[in-house]
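Good day; I would like, with your permission, to put a structural problem before you. What I wish to show you is a protein chain and, alongside it, a tokenised description of its three-dimensional fold. I would ask you to consider whether the tokens describe a fold that such a sequence might reasonably adopt. You will find the record immediately after this paragraph:
***
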Amino acid sequence: MKCNSLTRNLQPTTYNLQPSKGFTIIELLVVVAIIGIVSGIIVASVSGSKAKGRDAKRIADISVIQLALERYYDEKRYYPTDLSSSSNSDDLSDYDSSVPTKDSSGNDYKYSALNADNTATCSNDCQSYHLGATLELANGILDDDTVDEDNNIGFIGTGLVYDVLPKF
């Protein structure tokens, strides 16, 4: 009997070689790293698109203000001294109800009333103006804009200013 029990203990044991269900830590880390890289690329491209959209809105707002200024000039034969209604008897919104006063970031649009030869700031019967907005992104179209610092009609600051003069 003893012999029989010894042989029974010497029999090989079998192991279950079936793979366990689930992922290894390495597989999970690789997937998380890939998701992080892809989401970083998407966030970077979307934030640039949003800034471009806000800049496009600023440029469109400048066009709306410019049209309202031209309507104002057609009726009065001069431009207002500033864009706010507090110093004018007439508000630009009387000429276009959608005239914006601030951009999407809450900044005022830049405006200077000028004399007829665009050389100095005007305080009465202004015959010209300089209108602009500060953009968020550099734009190749604006690279040729010049700032006339001597005559004080340019908007000094960053090179990201979109500015216009009257359409004659």
